[in-house]
UniProtKB/TrEMBL annotation:
Keywords: Cytoplasm, Hydrolase, Protease, Thiol protease. It comes from Kocuria carniphila. Belongs to the peptidase C15 family. This is Pyroglutamyl-peptidase I. SUPFAM superfamilies: Pyrrolidone carboxyl peptidase (pyroglutamate aminopeptidase) (SSF53182). Transmembrane segments: none annotated. Gene3D superfamilies: Peptidase C15, pyroglutamyl peptidase I-like. It comes from the Bacteria. It holds the Pfam family Peptidase_C15. It is an enzyme of class 3 (hydrolase). Its EC number is 3.4.19.3. Coiled coil: none annotated. The active site is at C142. It catalyses: Release of an N-terminal pyroglutamyl group from a polypeptide, the second amino acid generally not being Pro.
Length: 213
């Protein structure tokens, strides 16, 4: 079984993105026999993120997809229940481009995850990382990528938000998922813990999709 895991490049003036850092660390993992994990880092641009995501799927032909992004107002790891049919860039992306609020496609208001988010929460908590299901992936590029997964492909897949952890200092961006939320001062998770959480999610997805024998 092959699972594609994606994260994002640094955004704005920050030199790190927690999702990208996690994906980089996953590249060094040793996975169980029969499980292959491939990765891709996506640009933080309206013109590039979803197309790059779909190209990664076309290149790797995965059996399932786990997309990861960061949410600066959250202190927990949050698997997302659904993708919204809206894109809104209230601040410019890495190309300097804003985006007025508008639908992303001609589909319904919401598309549901194809992987049970509660199962991922259980897997994440099993490695001692706090997690809860989120109902809302926001309207920024994380949601746009999630929406592309659910609208443009039939693959099993979902999206996970991780806190905007930095190896040094604090994030200056990352609140776009929850624009009304203050940066969480209670975030005490590390990149190692976030990596453990996503690795546990990958293994849970593989187990959920493994044919019964």
């Amino acid at each position: 079984m092959k699972i594609l895991v994606t994260g994002f490049e640094p955004f704005g003036q920050d030199t790190e993105n927690a999702s990208g850092a996690v994906v980089e660390r996953l590249r060094g993992f040793e996975w169980d026999p029969g499980l292959e994990v491939v990765t891709s880092i996506l640009p933080v641009t309206w013109s590039g993120s979803a197309p790059a995501f779909l190209r990664a799927i076309e290149t790797h032909h995965p059996d399932a997809v786990l997309a990861v992004g960061e949410a600066g107002g959250r202190a927990l790891v949050t698997p997302e229940r659904r993708a919204r049919n809206i894109g809104h860039g209230r601040i410019p992306d890495n190309d300097g481009a804003p985006r007025p609020a508008a639908p992303l496609d001609e589909g319904p208001e919401f598309l549901e995850s194809r992987i049970d988010p509660a199962s991922l929460v259980a897997a994440i908590r099993s490695v001692s990382v706090p997690a809860e299901v989120s109902d809302d992936a926001g309207a920024f590029l994380c949601n746009a990528v999630y929406r592309a997964l659910l609208h443009e492909t039939n693959l099993p897949g979902t999206f996970i938000h991780v806190p905007a952890v930095r190896s040094q200092g604090s994030a200056t961006v990352g609140r776009e998922t929850d624009p009304d939320a203050a940066s969480s001062s209670s975030t005490i998770l590390t990149i190692d813990q976030l990596t453990d959480a996503v690795a546990a999610s990958v293994k849970a997805v593989a187990e959920l999709l493994r044919p019964a024998v």
